[in-house]
Amino acid sequence: MKGKALQSKKSLLIISLCILVVAGLVVWLVHYRTSSFYEAKMRAAETNFQQKLAAKEAQIQSITTILDTAYLKETFKQIDSNLYAIDKSLAARGMRGLSVKNIGGGRGLEMADIEEFVNYYKSYTKHLEDKLSFFPLGLPSDGERTSGFGYRRDPLMPDSLQSHFGVDFAGNIGDSIKTTADGVVRLAGFNGGYGNCVIITHSNGYETLYGHMSKILVQNGSRVKAGDKIGLVGSTGRSTGPHVHYEVLFNGTRLNPAKYLKL
């Protein structure tokens, strides 16, 4: 009897353990499936959020692109307008060889074309800069302008009139004289009433003349850049005091330099 009771208790214990194991597995499976389910839900929600965020960012970028394009187009139009104004001013002074192409406002501008437009304007403004470098602009010295272009009383003979084909700038002996454009020195030496004189040949038929120097700092054939120091103020030749006499010539004809002192 005791053996049978003991055997019955062992069987009951084994059955209980099996039930516990099965119950544990069920609980674990339920937990695992539930956790996986919610994790999948969270991943799907995160993916959906990121997709919506990307769509919003694309929409904002699209609007920004449209605004940027409109702004750039107006900017290019303004640049064209400015270039036309410069070209017109230079043409009135006889400047040749410039050409303004209105590509900024002449056709629709898309973002894909921006690099093309930027490269064009970089190229054109460099071209314009190169052209202007050979065009006589600005002042040959920092002195005050004392005499203009045209007829005036002869400073050495006050009772007579004299044709004055340049502009005079007062100064002190030794002050700097600068060339107003790139070019090649055609004459560097004494030149009659001009005294110590430098004549520079530029492009498009232009030349500039600088007279009455106390000292010449360049030689015949020298290549010079706009703003280079070419001599010192003096009073050589037909002169009553230290100054620089400045002339602008176009195909041999003397022009009023006042038109070329500033744009």
Provide structural commentary.
This protein has helices spanning 2-92, 114-133; strands at 145-147, 150-154, 157-164, 167-170, 176-178, 183-190, 196-201, 206-216, 223-224, 229-233, 243-250, 253-255. It is α+β, with helices and mostly antiparallel strands and 263 residues long. The chain folds into 2 domains: 11-133; 145-260, Glucose Permease (Domain IIA) (Distorted Sandwich), CATH 2.70.70. The strands form 2 sheets. Strands 1, 4, 5, 6, 7, 8, 9, 10, 11 and 12 form a 10-stranded antiparallel beta sheet that branches. Strands 2-3 form a two-stranded antiparallel sheet. Strand 6 and strand 7 (196-201) form a beta hairpin. The longest helix is centred in the N-terminal third of the chain and has 91 residues, at 2-92. Mean pLDDT is 76; it is low at 102-107.
Q: How many independent structural domains? A: 2
What general form does the structure show? rod-shaped
Q: How confident is the prediction overall: mean pLDDT?
A: 76
Number of helices: 2
Largest sheet: 10 strands, antiparallel
Summing up helix and strand content along with how strands pair, one would put the structural category as: alpha+beta
Low-confidence stretches: 102-107
Percentage of residues assigned to helices: 40-55%
Helix and strand sequence? HHEEEEEEEEEEEE
Terminal CA distance: 129 Å
Number of strands: 12
Taken as a percent bin, the fraction of beta residues is 25-35%
Radius of gyration: 44 Å
